[in-house]
TrEMBL record:
A single MF term (Gene Ontology): glutathione transferase activity
Source organism, top-level taxon: Eukaryota
Protein name per UniProt: Glutathione S-transferase kappa 1
Active site: 16 (nucleophile)
């Protein structure tokens, strides 16, 4: 971390629409605020399991609110999240473990692609409603994000390797250690201590805490 910059870590999983909103807002603010933004791909399923949390959509009233909330936030932040009632079943039925391992593999090998690749996964899943658990869709996402076919193929082979699996598990455990119980989990390292912010609607508060 360069002098005077606050390290801000964003723990996210592309299954989470609120993570997409938080990701885009922090991507914009990293050029305005004096922060070093670090993307930390993690596995939401692991966090839910470890903390006993449940997907918000499992509570009918909360699901009802979430539909309106995400539509409003998408419009406000100008992020093309599309959401409807049948998305809740779709999300519960789709595993993002493969996608998050693929994103982890790029973080380990070609981190400059981490931002565009993560964004492309969200676009596929939340704008185009595609099943990102299928290898051919993962490869299509990679091509769209500017990766060569060779690199994409190599990363796809890496997702079953112990190194990638361990890295994703470790990142997920790190988020839990900071107190995360859902996503996005944003951790700002300020005044020699970590400050956890949950959700995409706490970013003004984050700014205030770090003096921005």
């Amino acid at each position: 971390v360069s002098m005077g910059r606050t390290l801000v870590e964003l723990f996210y999983d592309v299954v989470s629409p609120y993570s997409w909103l938080g990701f885009e807002v922090l991507c914009r603010y990293q050029h305005i605020w004096n922060i070093d933004l670090r993307f930390r791909p993690a596995f939401l399923g692991g966090i839910m399991q470890a903390t006993g949390n449940k997907p918000p959509a499992m509570l009918p009233k909360r699901a009802e609110y979430m539909l309106k909330d995400i539509k409003r936030m998408a419009k406000y932040y100008q992020v093309p999240v599309q959401i409807s009632e049948d998305d809740f079943q779709r999300v519960l039925g789709t595993g993002t473990l493969g996608a998050m391992r693929f994103i982890t593999a790029i973080d380990m090998t070609q981190p400059r692609y981490l931002e565009p690749l993560s964004r492309e996964f969200w676009i596929r899943f939340w704008s185009q409603r595609e099943d990102i658990s299928q290898p051919e869709n993962i490869l299509a996402v990679a091509r769209q994000a500017g990766l060569s076919s060779e690199l994409a193929q190599k990363l796809l082979e890496m997702i079953s390797s112990p190194a990638v699996k361990n890295r994703l598990r470790e990142t997920t455990e790190e988020a839990i250690k900071y107190g995360a119980f859902g996503m996005p989990a944003v951790v700002a390292h300020f005044n020699a201590e970590p400050h956890l912010f949950f959700g995409s609607d706490r970013l003004e508060l984050l700014g205030s805490v770090i003096g921005e």
